[in-house]
Amino acid sequence: MTVVSRNLQTLKEQRDTTQSAIAAVAGASDGAVSKWFSGEKMPRMKYLEAISAYYNVSVDDLTGERNGLYAKAHGLTDAPAGASHVELRKAGRVPVRVLGAAHAGELEEPHSFFGEAVLYDEIAARHPRCFALEVRGRCMDMLFTPSDHIFVDPDMEARDGCIAVASVDGETVVRRLKRGNGSVMLVAESTEPQNHPDIIIRDGEADVRVVGVVFWWQARSELS
């Protein structure tokens, strides 16, 4: 299979559709689309653009090797596995995958995510690869509390002062991100500051990676 054929197959599986349906969307024959899926032939750009517009994905999602749908679905990018495009709907809200819990520990693999949260479609449209996390612990309880959902965009720039989901030597926490003087600070905003000290990492002391930026959060009761 080619890169494009793998991405098309991933799209087909994620959207629970068929090759014939994709052919209709693209305006191509079933025979031509069959060759795309087998890797025998590369679809022309006009067909890729029609598919990307209909399914709300980018052309890069269909053609990219490291940033295509297949790579995203299998955890081969810097974004967590399963962080694929949300599917916009006309009902006003769209489901967003909950990939794990935010506080400490590894992000869950997609087969063990907790279910779905719901986000308003106009917000989801601005963050097409977003995913949700369930809040655990009280290190950020001045903003959100346990069992709330936070929504994370792996593509947003992690600017100084943003709320970020950060991986520190493989353990993942959500904190306010501060940078300066050759160090990174992950600042807690807790009503119990004595129990949740800030994490200060000086250059080279630990492997720090920003998984994504928190752009929205809401109580679980409001999302049901």
Sheet having the most strands: 9 strands, mixed
Percent helix: 25-40%
- Cα end-to-end separation: 40 Å
- Identify the strand order in the major beta sheet: 2-1-3-4-9-5-6-7-8
- How many individual domains? 2
Under the CATH scheme, the architecture of the largest domain is Ribbon
- The gyration radius over C-alpha positions equals 20 Å
Number of helical segments with 4 or more residues: 8
Class by alpha and beta content: alpha+beta
The share of residues in extended strands comes to: 25-35%
Q: What name does the CATH topology of the largest domain carry?
A: Umud Fragment, subunit A
Shape: elongated
Specify the CATH homologous superfamily of the largest domain: Umud Fragment, subunit A
* Series of secondary-structure elements, N-terminal to C-terminal: HHHHHHEEHEEEEEEEH
The CATH class label of the largest domain is Mainly Beta
Which ranges are low-confidence, i.e. pLDDT below 50, for 5 or more consecutive residues? none
Mean pLDDT comes to 81
